[in-house]
Design a protein that fits this description.
single chain, about 150 residues, mainly alpha, about 0% strand
Length: about 150
């Protein structure tokens, strides 16, 4: 998080939301993220975390709406990844890939972006592309269990 431009009051509320989320108090955390956003409407991290809570709690529609609001602020690689994950979880691999690829166009060394790109290619049975991205993941984390396992099956 870039604390330099975010008002201290918004950061304090955001940190409280993180604590609530860690305790599984998701609705209270969402309420706090909304307060942080009211204080600082450009608070992309608050939108992202709120979207993740919606996703975790099974509200994919609200997660997508929240991520899309964040994208209006900035084309952030983590937001793009999370949108892709929503599509991936719905087995919409082609659509997910568009978001994963856009995420990697912003940050090509993003391990999670490479992992989900590889998973999507794997599910689409494009094993050459899957292998390329799994190898990239392993270049960041040699002991990445899932990437190593799926590479071994390729």
């Amino acid at each position: 998080m870039n604390n330099n431009s975010v008002p201290a009051e918004a950061v304090t509320v955001y940190n409280h939301a993180l604590e609530l989320s860690d305790k599984g108090r998701y609705q209270s955390a969402i309420d706090e993220y909304k307060k942080a956003i009211n204080i600082y409407p450009q608070f992309i991290e608050a939108y992202n975390n709120m979207g993740e809570i919606y996703s975790i709690t099974g509200n994919s529609r609200m997660a997508m709406n929240t991520y899309m609001e964040a994208l209006k602020i900035s084309k952030n690689h983590k937001i793009l990844l999370n949108i892709g994950v929503e599509y991936y979880n719905n087995k919409e691999y082609e659509t997910a890939l568009t978001y994963f690829n856009e995420s990697l166009s912003i940050n090509k060394n993003f391990p999670e972006g490479n992992f989900y790109t590889a998973l999507s290619h794997y599910n689409l049975e494009d094993y050459n592309k899957a292998e390329k991205h799994f190898l990239k993941v392993i270049s960041f984390d040699k002991k990445h269990l899932k990437a190593n396992y799926l590479l071994s099956t390729i």
